[in-house]
Design a protein that fits this description.
Blueprint: H1 5-14, H2 42-52, H3 66-72, E1 81-83, E2 100-104, E3 108-112, E4 118-125, E5 129-136, H4 144-147, E6 149-150, H5 155-158, E7 172-173, E8 189-190, E9 204-205, H6 255-291, H7 301-318, H8 336-341, H9 374-377, H10 381-396, H11 410-423, H12 425-432
Antiparallel strand pairs: 1-2, 1-9, 2-3, 3-4, 4-5, 5-6, 7-8
Helix pairs in contact: 6-7, 7-10, 10-11, 11-12
């Protein structure tokens, strides 16, 4: 029986949020209480400023609220990425001629479709993880503070095992037709920095050069077979003519920005997973300590194991464990790379975790810049202590053939350690204890 792609899409959207074992994930249980907890993410703070009159947004005829929202949330225009597959709730508005634009910074993601009825925004809250919002395209300027509303329905896709079983983010590579319909029966890939290049970017437009490497971006499935021609639009430096470029803020969908997005999405999830694990374990211990008449501060072995598992997972993300090795240089088509690198912070030798390599790997110093993020800094103390201790052990370790972080040589480890000591005071303080 042939499975219609729209039917597959609707089933994927309506699926109950479950973990890898098929068990329901109820983020509303204590201590998380996702729906009942007031968020303090960048969008929530913007709403507060709109209510007080401290901030105003401007609407224009070409892009509605988009430009003003990006400016208010400090999201760079050159982060623009265009996805043409119908893989969001606004499937009717998305097509290869009218792709969905994604803009992002370290903590905020904005999705815009020309002529669509709303702009979608998500942001990282220090305790809740990903929080989702929507703003109607025709919102009354006077009512913006109430029109920009939280939308927890997004958890149907953004709170599953693909987001590490926490409210989070994901980048997917699909096989899409020239109408933008994803062929789910051919499989999909949730991508990150470890994914083979040939499996990445399906359903996305990608501008930039990548030499002999090939990816699924810019390509369409023509029939029932997996017959993507990966050479047809390889190393494209411009968007295809079918895209109405005047409908977008810039004329790129930069490959470097895309690679950063893949890493960032799942690393945010790993941070949230680590925070949830620490908070849930502490809550469980508090309940059991009362029940078993144990000391209030007693920490069970199960809690230590859970913190270690989530902490190790986070460290794998921070240190780019199992990163796909580039065999050709990568070069984007916008100023994204330059703007990203300029943010720092820098040590005394002008080194930064934001400096790219793009010859054999993504970053020159493979430790994620998200270690500076508010959500990382807000990790519960037992988790933060565990991660810092493990990081120090790994970075001071000379390594051998059995080292899971053998991709980091002696110079890499020394450079990362020195940069962190110079630019991350909490880490430096931990080392001095």
């Amino acid at each position: 029986m042939k499975f219609h792609p729209i039917a597959a899409m609707l089933i994927a959207v309506c699926v109950v949020t479950t973990d890898a074992r098929g068990q329901s994930l109820n983020f509303d249980d204590p201590p998380i209480a996702y729906a009942a907890t007031q968020s303090h993410d960048p969008v929530a703070k913007l709403i507060g400023k709109l209510k007080s009159g401290e901030q105003k947004l401007d609407h224009n005829a070409d892009f509605g609220w988009l430009s003003s929202i990006l400016e208010a949330l400090d999201v760079p225009v050159n982060s623009q990425l265009l996805v043409f597959s119908k893989t969001s709730l606004q499937i009717r508005q998305i097509s290869p001629r009218n792709p969905r634009a994604i803009y992002f910074n370290d903590n905020v993601y904005v999705a815009y479709i020309p002529q669509a009825d709303r702009i979608e925004i998500s942001a990282v809250d220090e305790k809740l993880g990903a929080v989702f919002y929507a703003l109607a395209a025709d919102a009354d300027p006077v009512e913006l503070a109430t029109a920009l509303q939280r939308d927890d329905s997004c958890l149907s896709c953004h709170g599953t095992r693909k987001t590490q079983s926490v409210p989070g983010f994901l980048v997917r590579s699909v096989f899409a037709t020239d109408r933008g319909l994803p062929r789910f029966e051919l499989g999909t890939t949730t991508t990150d920095w470890t994914t083979d290049f040939e499996q990445r970017f399906g359903g996305w437009y990608i501008t930039g050069t990548h030499g002999d490497l090939r990816h699924r971006g810019n390509a369409f499935i023509q029939n029932d077979e997996n017959n993507l021609d990966l050479n047809l639009d390889a190393n494209a430096t411009e968007l295809p003519r079918r895209v109405r470029r005047e409908n977008y803020l810039t004329d790129s969908s930069d490959i470097v920005a895309m690679m950063v997005l893949e890493h960032q999405a799942q690393t945010h999830n790993a941070i949230t997973k680590a925070a949830y694990a620490a908070r849930q374990s502490k809550h469980h211990d508090q309940l059991m300590n009362k029940l078993l008449d144990r000391a209030d501060g007693f920490i069970s072995d199960s809690t230590r194991r859970r913190i270690a598992a989530a902490g190790d997972n986070l460290i794998d993300h921070l240190l780019f464990k199992d990163e796909f090795r580039l065999t050709s240089p990568i070069k984007g088509t916008s100023n994204f790379k330059t703007e990203f690198e300029q943010q720092g912070p820098f040590d005394g030798a002008r080194r930064s975790l934001r400096q790219f390599d793009l010859q054999t790997r993504m970053f020159k110093h493979p430790c994620s810049y998200l270690i500076y993020s508010p959500s990382f800094d807000a990790l519960p103390q037992p988790m933060l202590e565990y991660v810092f201790t493990r990081l120090r052990t790994i970075l001071e370790y000379e390594g051998d053939t059995d080292d899971p972080y053998a991709h980091l040589d002696h110079d890499d480890r020394n450079a990362i350690l020195e940069i962190l000591v110079a630019t991350k005071p909490t880490f430096a303080n931990h080392l001095s204890q």
